[in-house]
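sorry for the late reply, my laptop died twice this morning and i had to redo everyting from scratch. anyway the thing you sent over, i finally got around to it. pasting the sequence first so we're on the same page, its 157 residues, then the predicted structure underneath. double check i copied it right bc i was rushing
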Amino acid sequence: MELGLALALAGAALATFLSGMGSAKGVGIVGEAASGVVAEDPSKFGQTLLLQALPATQGIYGLLIAFLVLLKVGAVGGDPQIEITVMKGLYIFLACLPIAFVGYFSAIRQGRVAAAGVGIVAKRPEEVSKAMIYAAMVETYAVLALLVSFLMLNGIN
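ok and here's the structure:
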């Protein structure tokens, strides 16, 4: 395997691994908090599940960028023999970094905010939308990182 292709695939892997690990951790944090609330009041399952789902999106964003990389290098639906220079591979690798790192950290932070939102649901379930807004504010930065990674990838010829 040539170095350029290896760099591109490493970027795709990093985007998937880091954002996925962050999402897994964030979802786990919320799940721990939600389990205690649901043990006391099972009727709050739906509200806490909505909060738990929020940190999962960063993993999806990383997977999306990885899939776009695989399409770009011809590993999926294309010619796997396509020539990827070292510089092009490096550009692709660098384009994956925003969603990889911001996805990782924002998913964990979003999990913490959503876990605090579970506390809101425990005491005032009618305020679940406010808890979701707090958690969604953290999501903004993951969306911005996704956009930057996407634009950088699209700018590589």
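The longest helix spans residues 3-40.
thats about all i looked at so far, will dig more tmrw
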